[in-house]
Amino acid sequence: MLEFIVEFKEWFIGLGVLVYILVPVIWLLTDARKNLRDDGSLNSYGDAVETDFRENWVFYFIWLFVLVVFLISLLFNGISLLSKSMGRKKNKSGNKFLLCLLLVLCCLSSFGCSANSLMKMRSPCPYAGSSFKWLDSTNMGSYCYKSCGSEKNGMIYTGRAGFIDMCHVYESIDRTKGAHKMISDNLKLGKTAFSFKMIEPATYYFTVEYPVGWNNVSYSEKQTIINVVSIDLGQVIAHRSTIWHESITYFNWSSMIAFSEKPSAFSWEDIYSDLLGTVVAAEALREGGNFSAACNRVLNAKIDELQLVSILQAKSAWERIKGLWWAGGPYPFINMKERNYDVGFDGFANPWLAPGMYFNDVPLPCAAPNLESTFKHGFKFKVEIAPGSGAGRDVAKKIGKKRVTLDSDLERAVRRIKMGY
Q1: Which residues on adjacent β-strands are paired with residue 326?
Q2: Whole-angstrom distance, CA of residue 404 vs CA of residue 394
Q3: Do 413 and 55 touch, CB atoms closer than 8 A?
Q4: pLDDT per position as a tens digit, 293-347
Q5: Are 349 and 306 in contact (CB under 8 A)?
Q6: Tell me, what DSSP letter sits at residue 42?
Q7: Which of 70, 173, 304, 398 could serve as a FRET partner for 359 with CA atoms 20 to 30 Å apart?
Q8: Residue 332 preceded by cis peptide, ω within 30
Q9: How do residues 27-53 score in pLDDT, each as one tens digit?
Q10: Strand pairing class (366-367; 155-158)
């Protein structure tokens, strides 16, 4: 049996790659099927399906290339077996090259693509039921805009905020920085309507009312006001985009395609981590200067305030929530027993502390931004999210709309998800 496996190892690996390829193909067909009427024509959401494909063209190109290389690999293996049956020497080097290429491409494709070049989806982020790196003051690393070698993705535990996913913190900082720049650029051009994408497949549409007498304001004063307003609104959009992310992953959207991210939707650490990242970015933007350096100063101060504990204590806290907040494993075969829907629409996100882990500290809620705060200086904004995926349209269906308005519609959608209808 062992000799059989060794002899045909290329075929077994090829079969695994084929399954890996077919999973997203079936997913794409299923997702497109949701947007067809009974007569086979595209419904009113058809343009959103096209948007989903366009914004991930690099990702789908990789998958297509994997498929082509896989077929070439099958051809080479077939020729190799035929040559062996005729007494010729087997071409091992060619097979090894093709298999290595396949494995590298599959690894690259698992990271997915971001719709916006100003933001980068960190990967891999910690999931319950998966192996991940624990961090504390000895190996924390530092933030770098759009990621770099100094960052350390992993989980920490704090006495006042519970588990914090540093991957989500860093990504939310990127979201805030990116949203601030795009809003600022459009306001400086005097646009009354504009749109852009964040990381997930969805388009954010903005309608702007400028303050009365705006044309009489000096150029320098306009720049100052726009920067202040863009920071506030950028933080709101970044935070709401993370709520949108949790909502669509609840309906099985995934950046990895091969595995659903539903087990991690509205998890106990993501909500606080995401919000913390937007708070850090907003404070760093107000401080000015080198953005990454400012973020690290603010972030370190926040983590100190939250009372970071050692890795040993963090692992102890993790053991205490097994079977209580989640069970089973490994990821994605886990049972999420508790989900955190306290996303901050009431002005704060409250942390979840592991039971029995007391460090004589008081839980510290994280203040959440609100859209009304952006109306300062006389600006008024209307923001709508147009879904660009089947999962996003499932969220919109929860409130019976094609577009989701901030904040009323998104809050209502999350509430319906929580209540299970």
Answers
A1: 322, 336
A2: 11
A3: no
A4: 999 999 999 999 999 999 999 999 999 999 999 888 777 678 889 999 999 999 9
A5: no
A6: B
A7: 173
A8: yes
A9: 444 444 443 333 333 333 333 333 343
A10: unpaired
